[in-house]
Amino acid sequence: MAAVSQPRMEKDDEDSSLLPLVHDIIKCMDKDKDGQEVHQELTKLKTKIQKAREQISNMPGIDSSPQEQQQQLATLREQVHTKNQLLQKYKSLCMFDVPKAS
């Protein structure tokens, strides 16, 4: 099973809300009669939506079905449980005598 890397948090990732852009578009519609500023704001919104689509398509596991993801999660939990059991077993064996410093 391959390790899945965590997505990087970038400055753009923190501001993923579309609401401020929609608000700006509405404000421009009220004051801009020729529509030039509205067009610019719509272009910004379109760009932001496209970036969001790209980020979603690049997310790890997006190509897996929910059932496959649940199966992967169950397998990983089982592996963690087994490794924890082995770790406890090895700790309890005390095979190594560590000399005490005087």
UniProtKB/TrEMBL annotation:
Pfam families, A to Z: Med9
Database matches in SUPFAM superfamilies: Mediator hinge subcomplex-like (SSF140718)
Chief location of this protein within or outside the cell: nucleus
Compartment annotation: Nucleus
Any single Gene Ontology cellular-component annotation: mediator complex
Presence of keyword Transcription regulation: yes
Signal sequence range: none
Gene Ontology molecular function terms on file: transcription coregulator activity
Key words, A-Z: Activator, Coiled coil, Nucleus, Transcription, Transcription regulation
Functional summary from the UniProt entry: Component of the Mediator complex, a coactivator involved in the regulated transcription of nearly all RNA polymerase II-dependent genes. Mediator functions as a bridge to convey information from gene-specific regulatory proteins to the basal RNA polymerase II transcription machinery. Mediator is recruited to promoters by direct interactions with regulatory proteins and serves as a scaffold for the assembly of a functional preinitiation complex with RNA polymerase II and the general transcription factors.
Name by which UniProt lists this protein: Mediator of RNA polymerase II transcription subunit 9
Organism listed in the record: Cyprinodon variegatus
